[in-house]
Design brief:
The chain is α+β, with helices and mostly antiparallel strands and about 675 residues long. A hairpin with a 4-residue loop joins strand 10 and strand 11. Among the domains are: about 100 residues, no CATH class; about 210 residues, no CATH class; about 35 residues, no CATH class; about 80 residues. It is built from 25 helices and twelve strands.
């Protein structure tokens, strides 16, 4: 074959493949990828000769004579349908076995392989660290059961050492776990509390470009003075002292370059480890490690974004406009009474804050652990007063009040630092928590139970009398005079778990903050009783919220909202009564008013109709193929048989169209539209 003929044949073949692909897609009624459809048509063209030969042989006379015109038309139709049926079957089979998106493209595959290799190296490193510290059997779910305190202490020490060697993400994970008294034994909480996120500072050559890019100019131009030696350094960022041109002393928090990639890779490993432990171990399933890992990942990604921390600081500052001190930060507490000390926090310089840089007011003082013993009780009471006000009254609270985030300022007040983790509560949750605390103060088990069921999502079935008895026993153990409240939150979470109550994330943040605060208060003032002081707070502040004036204001607001409805109510009742009296009372109900419902029902009827038509065509084909008689085309093939073969092809095409619609997974856009 010469070159021009080869070109013509090639163009004709390409056009045939494209036409076959278009017809196949139209008949299936489902949009497939262009590459997938083209390959199916190309493969069908290659298989066509071997597949069609036996079909044609059954209806074309063996002696080579031409069949009648009607038979020739039937044979042509049969061949065309068989040719289209092949790519349809291939696409439906591929849709069932290899759905779109399950196989990545070349570029995505290359990036995925590179990422997998990087994760594999890090995963191998983490595994070696765990094995080196004796945690290998526990990763496989075969660790020994530890019933004695010495064994728990050994395992806790091994876990702390392994997390310390694992780097930034795992140190943060250990610090978060050290606040979960509701999940971990006291030995683990105490040991993990020793983790310190202190590392060598990054060299100035790496930090200076970040500052120049985020602040829009050289450091020496933006600041009147800048100390290149950091005050402190952690794995995520480091803090430098500086002075603005206005003379104001500030601190500059800078994120380490490249830390987001390291944390992102480690978080993927944490998720995989959590999934493995949850599937292989009973304790992993009981703790819900996958949910904990997701919550931790969300928290640490927010901590990487200093813009979030600046917004948190601004939110806390805005929650107390009357007590704030303008641009110089905010203060909490009731210093006038002398029983507590105010708590201050630094104000961010919003115009100079970004995702990687945070500039805020500098508070001058020393670590809170260096306070004089005589100040401990007043400092602890002031800190508790501050946090309870944030939680119960303002609704914006510091979610991580551990000693490292506190300072004893030069003026004798407390400074609250690091607002990377802040919780927010809406008015209904705050009201329920207030009723919970007031009922605790009254030692009212029924009131505590009712308030608890308002805080958590109420399950469909719950034994309220048994829950009330459990709450009463809990209060008897922890609220009596002289009783220890060390296991307060652990026992409370046991009750919540035993009765199938699930705590919302924002409420869980409250309990975690209070559990962390309890340890901080004990360090400030050994023997400090969180429960008795919280009850005193309830009597001192929350009772003030329920006064004749506040009740009158609430009733006035409710009545103001109800008056328009009450004014329209008599007229509406009169119209309804009049219509009923004269026999004109009707009800209008719009079925399937939503376009999405109509579209879903139409699609369902479409599939049912195709199924019925396909089944009918298949049944008719079987009847015709088993019927003797009719015009004979060749020795054993009649016109009825040829029609039966064509109906069989039509039934197959309709069946493949229904299967394609069934196997096709909803697209993301369809899912989003259905969720609206």
């Amino acid at each position: 074959m010469d070159f021009p003929s080869s070109v013509v044949v090639g163009i004709a073949t390409l056009l045939t493949i494209m036409l076959l692909a278009v017809v196949t897609q139209r008949l299936l009624g489902v949009r497939f990828g262009a590459l997938r459809t083209f390959l199916a048509a190309l493969l069908a063209l290659g298989l066509g000769q071997s597949v069609l030969r036996p079909i044609v042989a059954t209806v074309v006379p063996a002696d080579g004579r031409q069949p009648p015109d009607a038979a020739a038309l039937g044979v042509l139709l049969l061949v065309l349908m068989a040719m289209v049926l092949i790519p349809m079957a291939l696409l439906v089979l591929a849709e069932a076995l290899v759905p779109p998106g399950s196989v990545p493209g070349p570029l995505e595959l290359a990036r995925s392989v590179r990422g997998r290799l990087s994760r594999a190296r890090r995963y191998s490193q983490i595994t070696r660290i765990a094995v080196r510290h004796g945690l290998g059997p526990y990763l496989r779910g075969r660790g020994e059961r530890l019933d004695d305190r010495s064994g728990k202490l050994r395992l806790a020490a091994s876990l702390r050492a392994a997390l310390d060697d694992g780097g930034v993400t795992f140190i943060k994970l250990g610090q978060v776990l050290s606040t979960r008294r509701d999940l971990l034994p006291a030995e683990f909480v105490e040991e993990l509390g020793r983790l310190q996120d202190q590392v060598a500072p990054a060299p100035w050559e790496q930090i200076e470009p970040v500052l120049r890019e985020e602040l829009g100019g050289p450091v020496d131009e933006v600041f009147a003075a800048f100390d290149r030696t950091p005050l402190a350094a952690a794995s995520i960022g480091q803090v430098h002292a500086a002075r603005l041109h206005s003379g104001r002393e500030v601190v500059v928090k800078v994120r380490r370059p490249g830390i987001e990639a390291v944390v992102g890779r480690d978080l993927e490993i944490v998720r995989r480890l959590a999934a493995t432990l949850e599937s292989r171990t009973r304790w992993g399933r009981s703790l819900g490690l996958c949910d904990l890992a997701e919550g931790f990942a969300t928290a640490i990604m927010e901590e990487l974004d200093f813009g979030v921390e600046a917004a948190n600081m601004a939110a806390v500052s805005a929650s107390l406009p009357a007590r704030g001190s303008g641009d110089r930060g905010g203060s909490w507490g009731s210093g006038s009474s002398g029983s507590t000390v105010p708590v201050r926090y630094p104000a961010p310089i919003s115009a100079m804050c970004s995702e990687r840089v945070l500039v805020m007011e500098r508070l001058s003082g020393r670590p809170v652990t260096a306070a004089d013993p005589g100040q401990g009780t007043r400092l602890a009471r002031g800190l508790l007063d501050c946090l309870l006000r944030q939680i119960l009254i303002e609704g914006v609270f510091h979610a991580d009040p551990h000693p490292g985030n506190l300072m004893l300022l030069d003026d004798g007040t407390l400074g609250l630092l690091d607002f990377g983790s802040v919780g927010r509560l809406d008015g209904s949750v705050r009201a329920a928590l207030q009723r919970f605390l007031l009922a605790m103060n009254r030692q009212d088990p029924l009131g505590v139970t009712d308030a608890l069921l308002e805080v958590v999502p109420r399950p469909e079935e719950i034994d309220e009398p048994a829950l009330e008895r459990a709450v009463g026993q809990f209060m008897a153990r922890h609220l009596g005079p002289g009783l220890d409240s060390a296991q307060l939150f652990t026992d409370l979470f046991k009750i919540v778990s035993a009765y199938g109550l699930s705590i919302p994330p924002e409420v869980a943040a409250v309990f975690r903050a209070l559990a962390t605060l309890e340890g901080t208060l004990v360090r400030l003032s050994p023997g400090f009783n969180l429960i008795s002081e919280a009850r005193a707070f309830a009597g001192r502040y929350l009772s003030e919220q329920i006064t004749p004036e506040t009740v009158r204001d609430s009733l006035t607001q409710e009545l103001t909202a109800l008056v328009p409805m009450l004014r329209r109510l008599p007229r509406r009742v009169e119209r309804i009564a009049s219509a009923a009296e004269h026999g004109r009372f009707t009800m209008n109900v719009r079925l399937l008013a939503d376009e999405r419902d109509r579209r879903y029902l139409t699609g369902l009827l479409h599939q049912v109709l195709l199924t019925v038509l396909g089944a009918t065509a298949g049944l008719m084909a079987v009847i015709l193929l088993t019927t003797d008689g009719g015009p004979v085309l060749t020795g054993s093939t009649t016109l009825l048989h040829l029609i039966g073969y064509n109906l069989l092809m039509i039934a197959a095409i309709l069946g493949l169209r229904v299967l394609a619609l069934i196997f096709r997974r909803p697209r993301d856009s369809d899912v989003r539209e259905g969720a609206r």
